[in-house]
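Run log, item B.
One chain of 102 residues. Sequence copied directly from the ordering sheet:
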Amino acid sequence: MSPIGLQDFLIVSAALFFTGVVGFLSRKNLFIVFMSIELMLNAVNLSFLAFSRGLGQVDGQVVVFMVVAVAAAEIAIGLSLVILLFKHRETLNVDAYQVMKG
């Protein structure tokens, strides 16, 4: 059995990112859209960790820590906005919020 290399991590990361993009573009539910964004962020984190491991440096791990902190703040603010929008319109369908276009 061969060890897992950098290319294997990058293939999984690309598959996760592509899955997130497809979910973001095809779904109409706000929760699914936010989960797809998180999936894309985690795919980028996996790439950073793979390069960090491959190069033998901790720079990628520091960047991942910062991205996780930003993602946690984004989810806290995004979830509160989704709850407020749901209270206002009583739906999570993205098409119901076309009025918000500027």
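Observations after the first pass:
- The domain at 7-94 is CATH 1.10.287.3510 (Helix Hairpins).
- The mean pLDDT is 87.
Flagged for discussion on Thursday.
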